[in-house]
Amino acid sequence: MPARDVTGSTDVLPEVVASRIVYRGRVVTVRVDQVRLPDGQTVMREVVDHPGAVVIAALDVHGYVTLVRQYRHAVGDRLLELPAGTLEPGEEPLQTAMRELREEAGLLAGRWDQLGSFFSSPGFLREEMHAFLARDLQSVAAEPESDEDITLVRRSLLALLAGPDEVPDSKSLATLLLVERHLAAEASGAASTKE
Length: 195
What we know:
Number of strands: 11
CATH topology of the largest domain: Nucleoside Triphosphate Pyrophosphohydrolase
Mean pLDDT: 92
Oligomer: single chain
């Protein structure tokens, strides 16, 4: 698998010379790659492949964001985070965002802004997160998956930006910063929206 250079650099990238899958699960695949570095040295890299995901900041007319509190087994605790979910095969990120917002938060949005994308933990995880801002919200019945135990929480966007320690989730923190940047650009007339 060729390495992907998202920086635009013309530097020589490491080359994958061998790869083997050591685990294939419902959501992720774990592989071990043998990689030749530009200096000729060969190293092993463990990689978790993920199909990608979305994260949604649902902002109401009063400046409040809807978050979900849910149990995250990997950290052994309930975390407060923005609604998010995995891309299904053949599904575009916006479709996933619309589905996840409805399922997890019981919300439909009349206005969607794509904020950008980022890698959640690129040292070992190949998961590209697509961030969205959802507005013009309408409540509907939530449809969480059978294994999700979700509590909805509303917080002021300004309070979240001023004191982000309540949200120990990197995708949520990154998305809140993207929302702040987008709203500032929008206020100055520089933002574009996708409806």
